[in-house]
Specification:
It is a single chain. This protein is α+β, with helices and mostly antiparallel strands. Helix content is about 25%, strand content about 30%. The longest helix has 15 residues. It starts with a strand and ends with a strand.
């Protein structure tokens, strides 16, 4: 089971199917998904993809968390994940996606820090990875703020990605 996390500004709750419409709306913004491959232009496939990713299955303590404001629980601020890479593994990946209204405010770093601490302190993972489009400078900055270190380039979904990784140190 996934825990709930509270940070100074945020509440992270395990994502449920009730969050689907907000995730779909966020993904419809082409600036939000410009660095991520997915079925964004096909409404039926997009919904099926989000629902499948929400339901998993994932190892205990892993999955997607919906990010909400502590001041307004109705305020959807995106999600953060901790799952086997591409939902198959064997590496464990951390990732995040936020609507534009939440960009540049430190929300991704704050939310991902809570999940990364859980990965090391509770799940006892030795390493967590993030694969990021090299043009996605904002996500690269988040990875570096989290203490992840560039470990080279990989090909994911037919394109070059930058791999960041962190050894347990939190």
């Amino acid at each position: 089971m996934q825990p709930v996390f509270e940070t100074p500004r945020l509440i992270l709750r395990p994502r449920t199917l009730a969050d689907t419409d907000e995730c779909l709306a966020m993904d419809r913004d082409p600036l939000v998904t410009r660095f991520v491959d997915g079925p964004w232009s096909d409404a039926r496939k997009h919904r099926a993809f989000v629902e499948a990713r929400t339901l998993g299955p994932y190892p205990a303590g892993m999955g997607y968390w919906t990010i909400r404001s502590r001041n307004d629980a109705a305020d959807f601020l995106g999600w953060v994940l901790l799952i086997p890479a591409d939902a198959v593994g064997p590496e464990i990946e951390i990732g995040w996606r936020l609507p534009r209204k939440a960009w540049g405010s430190g929300i991704a770093t704050e939310a991902a820090t809570a999940v990364l601490q859980h990965a090391f302190a509770t799940l006892r993972l030795a390493e967590v990875v993030a694969e990021i489009d090299p043009l996605n400078l904002a996500s690269i900055r988040v990875a570096e703020k989290l203490g992840l270190v560039r470990r080279g380039d990989v090909v994911g979904h037919g394109r070059k990605m930058v791999r960041y990784a962190s050894m347990e140190k939190l």
